[in-house]
């Protein structure tokens, strides 16, 4: 964000193409709000973003960024999400106050280990009374399947689009099979972090060949949208781009 004035702009542009004024969005793993801010401006005052972040220090930065942008259509939650109510641990050696770079977006929740205890809630309980739902975005460092299991009710009711990170080869097959079993079609979306047309016009690429491995998932009964160039449909749960 400091270097380029943006974060993963290609991912933001793809998500922006799916949304419009009045849409409701659930974002599980909002971090400091790098995508939250832009999405909130797209859905506007008649829309709503439910932003969920379990790391206490990062959650406070998320709330600060929402306040700095005067966004009143974002409801932040300081918790994790899973298949059932639980208490887990943020296991991290990160010094959030350090001036050196760190990856707070790569922090996982664990059932064991020393760290910061955080509450975990199923989405069906956390936002079960949501009146409508256009998109669920999930970036939770390996707990994507558990989040979806805890959202079964709202997924069946609203049939939202899903945008799910899938970069753990050992968990990929079970995650893909779960979404397919819910009657969804899936596509790989693999945006590079570096945007040559970045906000500050910095030509040096600090992230060569670094991309996010995400899946765009659409209910099978929906009319197929005009898909972005480069999307690859997922037909084989055993296949992962990182493993081939």
Give a structural overview.
It is a single chain. With 244 residues, the chain is an alpha/beta fold. It contains seven helices and twelve strands. It has one domain (9-243): Vaccinia Virus protein VP39 (Rossmann fold, 3-Layer(aba) Sandwich). The protein has an eight-stranded mixed sheet, with helices on both faces. The longest helix has 13 residues, at 56-68. The protein is globular, with a radius of gyration of 17 Å.
Produce a short descriptive summary.
The protein is of the alpha/beta class and 244 residues long.
Helices and strands, with pairings:
Elements: H1 9-18, E1 24-28, H2 36-43, E2 48-52, H3 56-68, E3 74-77, E4 80-81, E5 86-90, E6 109-110, E7 116-121, H4 123-126, E8 135-138, H5 144-149, H6 152-158, E9 161-165, H7 169-181, E10 184-189, E11 214-219, E12 232-234
Parallel strand pairs: 1-2, 1-8, 2-3, 4-7, 8-9
Antiparallel strand pairs: 5-6, 5-7, 9-11, 10-11, 10-12
